Amino acid sequence: VPATRVELTVSCRQLLDRDTFSKSDPLCVLYTQRPGSHQWREFGRTEVIDNCLNPDFLHKFVLDYCFEERQNLRFDLYDVDSKTPDLSKHDFLGQAFCTLGEIVGSAGSRLEKPLIGILGKKCGTIILLAEELGNCRDVATLQFCANKLDKKDFFGKSDPFMVFYRSNEDGTFTICHKTEVVRNTLNPVWAAFAIPVRALCNGDHDRAIKVEVYDWDRDGSHDFIGEFTTSYRELAQGQSHLNVYEVVNPRKKMKKKKYLNSGTVTLLSFTVEAEHTFLDYIRGGTQLNFTVAIDFTASNGNPSQPTSLHYLSPFQLNAYSLALRAVGDIIQDYDSDKMFPALGFGAKVPPDGHVSHEFPLNGDASNPACHGIAGVLEAYQRSLRRVQLYGPTNFAPVVNHVARSAATVLDGSQYFVLLIITDGVISDMAQTKEAIVNAAKLPMSIIIVGVGQAEFDAMVELDGDDIRISSRGKVAERDIVQFVPFRDYMSGGPGAGLSMAGLAREVLAEIPDQLLSYMKARGIKPPPIPPMF
Questions:
Q1: Domain C2 spans what residues (predicted)?
Q2: Which domains does the chain have, with CATH numbers?
Q3: Does residue 95 carry a pLDDT above 80?
């Protein structure tokens, strides 16, 4: 299923005038970078607009958007003086750098930046507008029943189910849905099911959809009853005589002259509605609030020793700093005030040396927020010199700290992300589970990055991918925890940037769906885009 695609519209205002007898003839060139690479590659060019210092380019750039990747973009503007495609033959008008996340995360997904690159000159501004392409947004809900299907079981009737396939450009078919099995009947009514339209027909309403009907067998050797084909356009007409299909078994048809069909399948209902996406909420103004919690327990090792996970080397960042940078650099694009609360846990803190499990890294209990990721790193390094590493490793206090903030903003205007970086051996498992089960009702997600070589079995349990986490018999409403071991992405040398991009991709991949699951469960629709856009 295709990724989310975003269309970028480029405009400029007050470009430099490089032509003597007329105005500049601007062209915009977009460059992108592959994840982990610093090499710019040309992605595309707009058309040239003659004699214009305030161009609104018609040509759009269509990019695959990945929330969990830092997608660097560079826009270069030229005044085109001849037909040659060689850019060195044209006058440079300035450039702008940003990330796709920065554009999407701005109010109304509209970013204005000054053009730079010519010393001592004001080069004007560039205006970038991102819009999600709409063809991949609809979700169809369908329900079918069947009549007089062939009896395939020796004892009793058939146990029918259906399999749906979408056709591909090359004539092959890809499975896209399987109904449940209805036991012991030749006239089944299947439950309604929802499926993204793009999964059903990839946006082409006339493309064939093949449906096969089977009789379920316990040993997996399901008996083929028959098949029929339809298309999205036909199904979209809803319940009518056009949507009653003969189920045909081609082999039977060839063998028996009088064979009509192996039963019929009828469409009972069809509805379609646009599914709201992560970008709808971001464009509508939902802010991501990012909080960091760092493990200051003694098991990390003495910070003055190079073997410590907290060792501050003058030559390279330690694992805590690297993990913080990898995740923070991406999330900060979605937080307009760039103020990030930063907490520590498991240390003895001044002035009296009591053990704290939620102390502010900047020393200000009334406002633990630091300015930017750089501010968080600075506060972390200062704290290491101020506090004494101790124990135990308790997560519940920092989870509850963020949950208290999240509980005050339930309207969908803010979503909270807590990043816990830890060396792993958790002491308050029962309390943490309870805190997570309670937090699952709130607009928040938790990312845990495990550093060092410990066994992280407890963390895997908190990450409810396989078994949803529960506490005192209460199961978490949503899966809100994502755990990743840092060591899986450790690589020195030239590939280090790539492995950090991989770490960010892994820990952030679930955030968009977790945000959507909260909004959906609460029936919160994205607000309309602010009118100025």
A1: 1-115, 122-245
A2: 4-133 (2.60.40.150), 138-274 (2.60.40.150), 286-522 (3.40.50.410)
A3: yes
Q: Specify the DSSP element, H or E, that contains 91.
A: strand 91-99
Using CA atoms, how far residue 246 sits from 99, 228, 515, in Å, is: 53, 7, 43
Rounded distance between C-alpha atoms, residue 210 and residue 263, angstroms: 16
Residue 74 has pLDDT above 70, yes or no: yes
| Residue 212: CB atoms within 10 Å | 19
DSSP string, 419-476: EEEE-S--S-HHHHHHHHHHHTTSSEEEEEEE-SS---HHHHHHSTTSS--EETTEEP
Residue 234: Cβ within 10 Å count = 17
Question: Would you give the DSSP letter of residue 69?
Answer: S
- The closest of 374, 319, 324, 316 to 493, measured between CA atoms, is 316
Closest CA to 195 of 238, 136, 246: 136
Query: Which letter, b or e, does each residue of 11-48 get, where b requires 16 or more Cβ atoms within 10 Å of its Cβ?
Result: bbeebbebeeeebbbbbbbbbbbebbeeebeebebbeb
Nearest to 193 by CA among 245, 275, 271, 263: 271
State pLDDT tens for residues 445-478: 999 999 998 888 888 889 877 778 999 999 999 9
The predicted model scores a pTM of 0.73
- φ/ψ of 321, rounded to 5, equals -65, -40
**β-bridge mates for residue 245, sequence order:** 265
- Which residue is it, tokens 């269309």? 7
Query: Which amino acid is present at 37?
Result: S
**Spatial contact of 399 and 343, defined as CB atoms under 8 Å apart:** no
